[in-house]
Specification:
about 110 residues; mainly beta; single chain; about 55% strand; 1 helix; globular
């Protein structure tokens, strides 16, 4: 049996210029990322994260090898809902990790 993830929508902020006050102006675009594993956090892990970060983490996403998207401080859509990434991704060396995934990202409910 082969494990296969789902397609998630990653919101990317792309700098398109600066405004009159020389502040960056961004445009939001959506990129679909295939084969992402979505794992709910256990109750104990949710409590630990809440105590450490003050955020209620809902899921941990396993990102496929070779993905070069920025997963820091961005919105992700899956299960007909929006979530926000928390912290920095945990990334392992691709060739040392069996399977298709080498990066993990935590997300909290958006809004």
């Amino acid at each position: 049996m082969e494990i296969r993830g789902i397609t998630v929508k990653l919101h990317k902020k792309e700098k398109i210029g600066v405004d009159g006050f020389n502040k960056p102006v961004y445009e939001d675009s959506i990129v679909e990322v295939d084969n992402v594993l979505v794992t709910p956090l256990s109750t104990a892990a949710k409590v630990d994260e809440l105590n450490l970060t003050g955020k209620t983490i809902m899921y941990e996403l396993s990102i496929p090898k070779g993905d070069s998207n920025n997963w820091v401080d961005t919105v992700v859509e899956f299960f007909d809902d929006k979530f926000h990434t928390v912290g920095f991704p945990t990334e392992l060396i691709e060739i040392l990790v069996p399977g298709d995934w080498n990066k993990k990202v935590k997300v909290e409910k958006n809004g």
